[in-house]
User: Fold these one by one.
Assistant:
Number 1:
Amino acid sequence: MEKIVVCGGRELHGEVTISGAKNAAVAIIPAAILVDGVCVIENVPNIRDVHVIVGIMEHMGAKIEFLDKYTLRVDCSSMDKQTAPQEMVRKMRASYYLIGSLLGRFHKAEIAMPGGCNFGSRPIDQHIKGFRALGAEVACEGMVRASADELVGTSVYLDIVSVGATINIMLAAVLAKGNTTIENVAKEPHIVDLANFLNAMGADIKGAGTDVIRIRGVEKLRGGTYSIIPDQIEAGTFMIAAAATGGDVLVKNVIPKHMESVSAKLIEIGAEVTELDDAIRVKGTGVIKKANVKTLPYPGFPTDMQPQIVALLSVAEGTSIVTESVWDSRFQYVDELRRMGADIRVDGKTAVINGVRNLEGASVSATDLRGGAGMVIAGLMAKGSTEIREIQHIDRGYEKMEEKFKELGADIHRVFE
Ligand code: EPU
């Protein structure tokens, strides 16, 4: 068992470099299954979810090696299985991207229902609707079994704006015959990144980043080199931590455009935010004002930043209201914040946060990946020592989080029990 121990109260100062985007990496790596040749993928974050997807694909016959810490060489030419062990698949949500990729290449996929953070029900009906529209037969009882004689371009209108469905249908459609149009799609930066990766390998995808994606099916994709975008959520986590501790941090290797909703909210709360070409400087002013936040699909305020902003608002002057509108249930971590003295009432999808003067160090758990990030921010602000357990959730998506905070002057370390 490992835990993170934080002694709060230190301002963060200095520079931090953001890693490649988790949610882009976990889509782009399985997308290499569609490629006839070798893909070299750069700026890959060194996190558990990446190692899990690499492990699953190796098990299926892919040859994957780290050329250095952040560069993967992926060769799926020898891949000979269209199924993967359930216990591996259940370790992460994004394993469902194997379905779109396998269906696209082999016209066959058998993958267990994916795991991932528990935010209530996480249906994949929109993914399945897209696969069926492309001509696949799909059965879904514990396992998702999809097969097709051929995939033929089609029109799909998503009932719900879904990142996963948008990506999975794109993956299944790039090698389909003819043209596919997907409407009401998600616009997250990692969707654009996946489309850029596939286009760099020879796909013909237009409109990623808008509401409509148009794909002209091509016969094959060739190998190439591609570099993953920086992680928007890791960047936002460090930006909030800088503001929360009253520090002054230069967050490097970011695309400031991706951070606009977070930057605007931090300015509203009282921080100084300066955008540079590929960096953002966040300076805490000592004032933390109340604010209302509603999570929304991109370009709205990201649901994956919700626990971090709630941790910050727990010490704001006045009462803030945070509304979760993407997931049914994403406030599990609030009980942990309460252990630290936060005054937060959750009613369905809304949290009412009465700002307190201080949080107090306590023994808490990371209930999920971003909830864990929220607890680290709370620990950095709190008086005294906070122990955070269940940090395997944090390791799924943050590369050496405690080391990056230590570099900024935090009193934080990982303890092996
Ligand atoms: N939904 C459906 N049917 C579907 C698909 C989704 O009803 O077929 C609903 C979901 O239940 C949810 C909403 O649509 O209420 C949005 O879900 P979406 O499909 O967009 O989420 P996801 O693809 O499963 C990705 C990220 C999450 C992030 C969400 C929203 C990855 C691997 N995961 O999940 O990231 O919260 O988009 O932005 O990209 C994280 O990184 O911590 C994380 C949880």
Number 2:
Amino acid sequence: MVGSALVRKLEMSAGHCIITRSRQELDLTRQEEVEAFFAHECIDRVYLAAARVGGIKANQEMPADFLRENLQIQTNVIHAAHTAGVGRLLFLGSSCIYPRLAEQPMAEEALMSGPLEPTNEAYAVAKIAGIKMCESYRRQHGSDFRSVMPSNLYGPNDNFDLDTSHVLPALLRKFHTAATTGGQTVTVWGSGRPRREFLHVDDMASASRHIMDLSPAQYWSVAKPHCSHINVGSGTDVSIVELARLISAITGFKGQITFDSSMPDGTARKLLDISRLKALGWQPETSLEEGIAQTYAWMVEHWNQVGETA
Ligand code: GFB
């Protein structure tokens, strides 16, 4: 999802050549394959968006996979980029790096100030390691390796598999299915009380490009050597029940919303402090309503491919 949005964004301007590899062509968990790729291509800038990602259920059920694969991918890419002399790298993390009880909105300085949320601790630990790798390569080798921490992302090419997806695509699928098949109820996991901040993936791509293009002096005027990451979010959050009502209205569902209290809530609230991002001159453009309507249209248009997932 993020990779394809980055390519769409980069294709909008000339003057560079975009090099991509599909998962089938290059397995980023294989160190030798990654080293051979960087040795062969002449790469100036790297957007490191590749990761094993998933919603609350997938994170809870497969912590070993989330920890191992993300550590492998980012270690291989960051070190190979350094060895090949890549000029600049942008590592994409996640807002789950912050402590589960972090003060809201969460500033970059909240990193490692308290215990993590258990439902995604493994993934968060991998992402924290990625930030610290970028900082360490800068300290030891002078590498211009930067990090951005997005809030919950959504948009075209999202994962709509109900077992492994995040909440927004899951609810789009559930409400659409009920609305088009005469379903009377839609079940939302947990209490509906947790609050999340959602950002359209095209805004994330735009913010990533903006941060990548800043001069070192501009970036490091805001980023700090031991706290170098920049939060990227929309600046507002909604409760899961508010999100469900919004998606219900957009899909035209007329039935009842019920809650499955046997499913976990996860972090009570995740709202990022985006002061650093604003100081660097970037603002989000897509409202949640517009973004959901656009993603819903995309899902319906690609229903054959979406419907193949569970
Ligand atoms: O998006 P989500 O899976 O992940 O869930 P997190 C957010 C909230 O939505 C939780 C509730 O309180 C879920 O219980 N929810 C309600 C649902 N209905 C559904 C549903 O049908 N599917 C899903 N998936 N959730 C993830 C982390 O946390 O966020 C990752 O596990 C990562 O590590 C990612 O950070 C951005 O926001 O809780």
